[in-house]
Amino acid sequence: MATYKEIKGTNIEVLASDPSNPVEGQVWFNSTSNVLKGQSATAAGSWATSNAMNTARAYNFGTSGIQTAALNFGGNLDPGGRTGKTESYNGTNWTEVNDLNTSRYGNDGAGTYTAAISMGGNTPGGISNVTETWNGTNWTAVNTLNTSRSRLAAAGTVTAAIAMGGNAPPATADTELWNGTNWTEVNNLNTARSQLGGAGTSTAALGFMGSPGPTAATELWNGTNWTEVNDANTARLAMASGGTSTSAFAAGGEPKTGKTELYNGTNWSEDADLNVARQTLGGTAATNTAALACGGDSPGGIGYTGATEEFTGPGAGVTRTFTDS
């Protein structure tokens, strides 16, 4: 008979009190009440289909904002190649606004739908360190990244952002912080990777999954160093991502999937799949209970897509006490 450790990869935790944010499937022994407990979920979340982007695109374009007020920028068209197209989302519809100054794919970004930053990417001149900021109307070129790269991850705001990993090539672990004027190199990720997901702020960020691999590895940034934390359940790359360092999501990704996972600051848990399985898509969220996924590529299916989906949040968790009856 398999043990709990063989099934889950860890021993049952012994805790003086119940964890504040347990995930589905987590089991622990409460040493104060002397009972064995576990967490179950009453229901899964779900993805609701919203209106599609005006222009279908893929290849790791930048996304910023929240579920009901988002911005996406850059990407790859099929046909047409790199683009600077930018669209704004109001929770119902996407509206085309002014393009990036430099067309690119493999860029990422951070901020809101009215104040965003886009960095890196594969431009007509090759892999780039170009950085632009958005003021709600126009993009402006600003000081560049120290390391040119594509297919990186980013988090934070237009005045305090973090850029992590990417393809330089090869995959890099380089991390840089943006203070509103300049980029500064700081301590690297523990594992070099590109096409990873990112969430959080410049002082509390999460970098997860990616290539080479694909990998399920997850790292936490505390403003100074990266620390390896619990892996995701499904290794993948080029997924939609966003949220905070304690409430992040990952959806879709390569190999082509619709799988969604939610991070609670300790563990990843699987939730409802996207309606359209795809890879190299965009995504953003304030927390993992209200996420947005858009665009991407569905090889062998619908191809490049502008499909947009909103996550309605995970089901409510219930803590249960185990008995011998």
Portion of residues in helices?
under 10%
By CATH, the superfamily of the largest domain comes out as: Kelch-type beta propeller
Structural class: mainly beta
Shape: globular
The portion of residues forming beta strands comes to 35-45%
DSSP summary: helix tally: 1
Strand numbers in spatial order across the main sheet: 1-2-3-34
Distance between the termini: 20 Å
The strand count comes to 34
Please tell me how large the radius of gyration is.
20 Å
CATH level 3 topology of the largest domain: Neuraminidase
CATH architecture classification of the largest domain:
6 Propeller
Number of domains: 2
Average of pLDDT: 93
Main beta sheet strand tally, sense and closure = 4 strands, mixed
So what's the CATH class of the largest domain? Mainly Beta
Instruction: Note poorly predicted spans.
Output: none
Task: Report on this structure.
With 325 residues, the protein is mostly beta strands. It folds into 2 domains: 4-41, no CATH class; 47-311, Kelch-type beta propeller (Neuraminidase), CATH 2.120.10. It is built from 1 helix and 34 strands. The strands form 10 sheets. It has a 4-stranded mixed β-sheet with strand order 1-2-3-34, with no helix packed on it. It has a 4-stranded antiparallel β-sheet with strand order 4-33-30-29, with no helix packed on it. A 4-stranded antiparallel β-sheet has the order 5-6-9-10, with no helix packed on it.
